[in-house]
Structure formats: structure tokens, C-alpha cells
Amino acid sequence: MSDFQINLSRRQLFTRRNVIDTPALPWVKAAQFTDMCTQCGECIKHCPTHIIQPSDGGFPRVDFQQGECTFCYQCADACPEPLFLPKTEPAWQAKAVIEDSCLAKQNVDCRSCGDSCEPFAISFKLAVGRVAQPQIDINSCIGCGACVSVCPTSAITIKNTFQESTHVTE
Q: Where does [4Fe-4S] cluster 2 bind (predicted)?
């Protein structure tokens, strides 16, 4: 491993995309990712849902606009480098976030995200004088991204819930 590490926050300075707080790949060791990834593309070739796409600098990244992650572990199995945690570990600490551009928040009835959410983490709370409002049960959300591509206003994103250096105890 080299002494030089890429500062991803500085690389994002002149881009319009904000991918710093979104997950790169499931089970990936984020701290060593840019140093150890050879950009061979094996993870991209083996992703059955085709959500792993080349990103900034040729590094692979999950693009939830293409579909959802099924957590099949094929990306990790195909990788020739020791970049991934064991499948027994959590895939990532990423959860869905609904922004203000959501149609329901604009008082337009839309439940496409809830219909696509297999773990039923998105429910709709009835409101007086308004359409039902979406709510995410963070404990049920697995960060699969099924809700992202079906949103007509791109109001849903999958974001990391904490930095890797933070320890969460229960």
C-alpha cells in the first residue's frame, strides 16, 4: 500500500455530482478502496442488476438509478483484490433519504417508493388536508436502493449513515 492516498472530498470540488456520502460498493473496505482497487472491472461484469458502473477516475460505484442491490455478493467474489469484507458482515451502513422534492411532500399522491420497498421500510402516514406522507423506518431500511430508480422526481437517495471511524454501540 502506498503512502499516497486520494482525498475524495478534494476530487469532488469541481464536479456537480455529490457521491462522497453515498456507498461505493457493498462490503467494500472504504479506507483502502482507492489504494487497492485496480479498476479491472470484474465487479462491473459480474453484477446481475448492472448497478455497478465506472465512476470518477474509473473506480466502480453503485448507481441506484440503474436498479437495486440484491446483496448477492458476486461483485466481491469476482474481485481479485482483498477489497471486500466477509459476506457475514453488514453490506453497508446506508439508508434511504427522502428529499423535499418528493411528490407527496408537494401534495401530489405518489406511492411508487413504498410499492417497490421489499422490506416495507417505507410507509405512508395519513395527514389531514394533505396526501399521505412517506416515512422511512431506518431500522428496517437495508439500503438496497429499490426505491431510488422508481421515484419520478429523483427525491430519494441512499446515503451512508455514519463515517467509518465512528463506532455505533447498542
A: 69, 72, 75, 79
